[in-house]
Amino acid sequence: MALPSPTPSGGVILLHGMGRTGISMRAIAVAMRRAGIPTLSPWYGLRRSMPEIITWLQPRIADFVTANPGPIHIVTHSLGGLVARAYITAHRPASLGRVVMLAPPNAGSEIADLVFSLGLDNLIFGPVGPHLRTSRPATHETQLGRVDFDLGTIAGNRPLDPIIAPLFFAVPNDGKVSVESTRIAGMADHIVLPVQHSFMVQDAAVIAQIHAYLATG
Q: Phi and psi of 97, rounded to 5°?
């Protein structure tokens, strides 16, 4: 993901992470719009199952695709990466462009495993919780599908609390997701930046890398 780059064409769909709303993707949306790129940042909520989220998104994304000729790119944060995979598996846009995932728990999250061990999964994660486990049920993995699209992934390696993070992770991580968990077979590019999980969506270097990848791969 090289800097700098020309402006990507088409439109960009922004999919937020766990416990967030479309507002959390605002910095990315503003950067895209300043470059003349239309965006869609739906607030799909997380008290739905993954199939329910996909069903809710489908007409909204379909309308956006119709209104914006050209490649439709997708940028995600955290759980949004899994939502994107499930959506593409179920309703792949004919004009799908590139996808950039920020800190996606493609192989699950050790933090989610801890929440499950404490019996707090439904309270904290809701119906999408099983998708976040490192030992994801086979049926849930099937919903997500494989990566057969142009994917670039950005991982962080700077946890917010470097003292507590080692209690849950034995490997580089962003405080919520390990760097290794962000990887997935089929991805075209993967980089690691010194950013923390929750705040990477506002980071200037991250946003510059998103712009570069959407424009040139």
A: -100, -125
Structural domain range at position 154: 11-216
For residues 164 and 184, what is the distance between their CA atoms, to the nearest angstrom? 27
Specify the CATH number for the domain of residue 28: 3.40.50.1820
In terms of Cα–Cα distance, which of 214, 212, 204, 213 is closest to 28?
204
CA–CA distance, 115 with 92 (Å, rounded to integer): 32
Is the whole-model pTM more than 0.90?
Answer: yes
Tell me: the pLDDT tens digits for 102-114? 999 999 988 888 8
Q: CA 166, 167, 172 angle in degrees (round to 5)?
A: 30
- For residue 111, the SS3 value is helix
Q: Using CA atoms, how far apart are residues 71 and 13, in angstroms rounded to an integer?
A: 11
